[in-house]
Amino acid sequence: MTGLIVAMVLAAASPLDPARAAYQSGELAQARTELEALLYPLRLDGEALESEAHLLLAATYHAQEDTSRAEHEAVLGLAASRDTKLDPLLYPPDFITFVERVRTMHRERIAALAAERRRPILVPSPPPVQAPPSAQASPPIPSKSWYLMPFGVGHFQHGQRTKGTMLAVTQGTCLTVSAVSLSTALSLRGRDGLYSASDARTARRLNTSYLVSAYAFAALYTYGVLDGLVFTP
């Protein structure tokens, strides 16, 4: 069971987490290496991840003052997902302004690249499924889909208050530690979006705390889902 939980947690973690942490810690060379390995050749599933990776690589180039490459990656990122909004907690204001300028200057090129990516997929809608009428009314039973909710909601709905309380407390603690670590790390950044030499080590520890707490939250969430959907009759 432990191996299954670990596998599901690793699957839930974003492949961009190491590169994002390196960028936030000011380790630009490491972030660039991580992102280039994921993008060339492409090893990411989904337009959202691909777009975020291109934009994160653009931010890395921009911080290294490689404007031409930053512009190229920004165009690719916007073409992968044209409605992408940059997180002001992750990216510095000057880079956000840079991307908006690229969006305006290369609007036609971005639209052309986005059109090339689109492929029409026609999927017939499945026929409606009609449940057979029940012989007699039965008392309502809470749906097992409640187990997909975090903080032990599913266990409370099914009368398992002890497990529900345990999950609510532990998941809430992990989420709080993760959020506080991330916000503190972000507050240490300078106006250029990078950390000073004196703050780099502290920021790295805070980012590690943020990732560990996030993974712990994911592990507890996975345990709650498995316990409810698989191991509870």
TrEMBL record:
Keyword Membrane: yes
Swiss-Prot/TrEMBL keywords: Membrane, Transmembrane, Transmembrane helix
Record keyword Transmembrane present: yes
Name of the protein in its database record: Uncharacterized protein
Entry superkingdom: Bacteria
Membrane-traversing stretches: 166-188, 209-226
